[in-house]
Amino acid sequence: VQLVESGGGAVQPGGSLRLSCAASGFTFSSVAMIWFRQAPGKELEWVSTVSSSGGNTYYANSVKGRFTISRDNAKNTLFLQLNSLKSEDTAMYYCARGDRGASSRGQGTQVTVS
Q1: What are the helix and strand counts (H, E) for the chain?
Q2: What is the C-alpha to C-alpha distance for residues 10 and 44, in angstroms, rounded to an integer?
Q3: Are strands 33-38 and 91-97 parallel, antiparallel or unpaired?
Q4: Rounded CA gap, 43 and 22, in Å?
Q5: Which tens digits make up the pLDDT trace of 20-42?
Q6: Residue 105 · residue 87 · CB < 8 Å
């Protein structure tokens, strides 16, 4: 099982980024997927979940209306569109399998808003 996040970077407040998570080693289309984030000195925080089909999505209140989770099951890829970014969105962002939780997360991609 491998999850590889990418797409992070440095952006000004109000900017946008699109994160990707390339999945391999399991049947991606059968598993719900999750995005987490961890800011410096803070605990891991759940951000968003998408069902295996992509038809159902869930968001933390802190990102609702600004972030959009999606997936391309044909390409085994998970996405997180980040819009209207705020300084408090600065964190390492991780993707993980819904059936295994945070312990399955990848190495992460850094998002810095300043």
Answers
A1: 0, 10
A2: 20
A3: antiparallel
A4: 24
A5: 999 999 999 999 999 999 999 99
A6: no
Residue type, 71: R
Non-local CB neighbours of 44 within 8 Å, separated by 6+ positions: 36, 37, 38, 94, 102
pLDDT in tens, 48-98: 999 999 999 999 999 999 999 999 999 999 999 999 999 999 999 999 999
Strand-pairing partners, residue 69, are 80
Sign of CA dihedral 97, 98, 104, 110: positive
Mode of pairing for the β-strands spanning 33-38 and 9-11: unpaired
CA distances for 91 relative to 15, 21, 59, 78, angstroms: 15, 16, 17, 18
